[in-house]
Write a structure and sequence with these properties.
By secondary structure, this protein is of the alpha+beta class. It folds into 2 domains: 8-98 and 229-327, no CATH class; 105-199. Helix content is 58%, strand content 19%. It has helices at 8-25, 27-44, 47-53, 58-61, 63-100, 184-187, 202-209, 217-230, 235-262, 271-297, 303-327; strands at residues 105-109, 112-119, 122-131, 137-146, 152-163, 167-170, 173-177, 189-191, 194-197. Strands 1, 2, 3, 4, 5, 6, 7, 8 and 9 form a 9-stranded antiparallel β-sheet that branches. A hairpin with a 2-residue loop joins β1 (105-109) and β2 (112-119).
Length: 328
């Protein structure tokens, strides 16, 4: 996939950069498996029987695990999320560098959007005031071409630029050649249309700026505002932001599902089947949450419904299972 020139060190760095993201994505599954393991151990040692014997209800001795799950969820969102965002961004950039030998950077800010594309002949820095929703058409564009040594060799200004196959197609443009001991204004010329080579594709642009996982949750609200001001659709980022806020509730629900199926004493039998049902239900809810995220990003569901329904439903299902098994 990466070619023969990819060193072992680069591939190892790429792999390690993706580990935090993988752990973060699978945290709900880790939570339910940990809960199953812990409550099975408590059931085998009869500690839950003792707790019931002294008159404590399931909700009472589940209070501490709920607090731990909530603490893990809040810490994951507030502390671990920025670290995952940084490593995910590094992973995407390093993967592109290893795969193509080029490095493209997309940045959105209050002053507009900036794009840098590179190849063996040098770099091109592109600034635009705004764009269409997917970033393939830029408006009020300035392009600066740089040589391999980093010195500017050309400046182009145009009202619009459209990403075609292997090139940026510019509308009416003014071009200033830049060279030592020359007057760029005197050598400038206008063209009704113009084009410059580009190795970028729509998917690469989406990967460069479109992944909300590469944006720290602390910066996400400002980034959403900047995206909207620049003309991009920020729905994907808004869904992600709401899902991150709902993550602690989802982790609590997954922990309670694991508890609901594994608090029963092992002498009653059926432990293996209960564990299997808990794990399968957990995986099902995990993928249901991912599916709801897709529906929210594509506009099939309102943002709040896509983000909050799976966690709340998971919590209610878990409470129903516990109350049915313990008190029903």
């Amino acid at each position: 996939q990466f070619g023969d020139d990819a060193s072992f060190g680069k591939v190892a760095e790429l792999t390690l950069s993706n580990v935090p993201s993988t752990v973060y994505k699978t945290m709900p599954l880790i939570m339910i498996l940990s809960a199953v393991w812990m409550f099975l151990a408590l059931a085998r040692s009869s500690e839950l029987v003792v707790a019931r014997g002294v008159g404590r209800s399931p909700l009472q001795f589940l209070f501490a695990p709920i607090m731990v799950a909530a603490f893990v969820g809040v810490s994951a969102v507030m502390i671990f999320n920025p670290f995952v965002a940084a490593t995910s961004k590094h992973y995407i950039q390093l993967r592109e560098e290893i795969s193509t030998g080029r490095n493209s950077v997309f940045s959105v800010g209050s002053e507009g959007l900036w794009l840098r594309q590179g190849d063996t002949n040098g770099q091109t820095v592109i600034r635009a005031a705004r764009s269409n929703a997917d970033g393939t058409i830029l408006y009020d564009v300035t392009l600066i071409s740089l040589a391999e040594n980093g010195k500017p060799i050309r400046r182009i200004e145009t009202k619009n630029a459209r990403l075609g196959t292997g090139e940026w197609i510019l509308g009416a443009s003014k071009i200033w050649p830049i060279s030592p001991n020359s007057n760029p204004e005197m050598q400038s010329f206008k063209a009704p249309n113009y084009s410059i080579p580009s190795s970028l594709t729509l998917d690469q642009i989406k990967d460069s700026f479109g992944s909300p996982a590469t944006i720290s949750i602390w910066n996400l609200t400002k980034y959403i505002s900047d995206l909207q001001a620049s003309g991009f659709s920020a729905r994907r980022h808004a869904v992600w932001f709401q899902m991150e806020l709902a993550r602690p509730i989802f982790l609590i629900g997954m922990m309670l599902i694991g508890a609901g199926f594994s608090m029963r004493h092992t002498r009653f039998g059926g432990t293996g089947m209960s564990v299997l049902i808990a794990v399968m239900l957990g995986f099902g809810l995990f993928y249901l949450r991912n599916f709801a995220q897709i529906l929210g990003e594509t506009g099939q569901l309102p943002i709040w419904l896509a983000a909050w329904t799976p966690p709340v439903a998971t919590l209610l299902i878990a409470m129903g299972i516990i109350l049915n098994k313990e008190d029903g």
